Amino acid sequence: MSDNTLLTAAARAFAVVCYSDGRLAPAEQQRFAAHLRSDPAFRSLDDGAIETAWTEAFRTVSETGSYDSLLPAIAAAGAADREAVMRAAQAALVADETIAPQEEGALAAIAKALGLDPSAY
Predict the structure, then answer these.
(1) Is the overall model pTM greater than 0.85, yes or no?
(2) Contact in structure between 49 and 6 (CB atoms under 8 Å)
């Protein structure tokens, strides 16, 4: 999978979880960039690519209003990259230091779309 496809999948997964409660906390955007910089799967990406991916993902998620239609794009992550996408989604779950039931539901839906066991996350 290309870095761009992986980055897009991770950014959308992160945005879906963050926005599933209907709001975006200021800390969530900062945590996205921090997570990617610390994750070995994304370390080769520059800050500009990360910022662009986040902006596009958040715009797409907020305009769509429902994350179900975004799951196929997230599921485009290849088998080798699914765990990296799930790490991003999990980081989003705690990015604003609160866990809403909608966020847990979004995380489970992402795991399912990736062909992973939601109960493992």
Answers:
(1) yes
(2) no
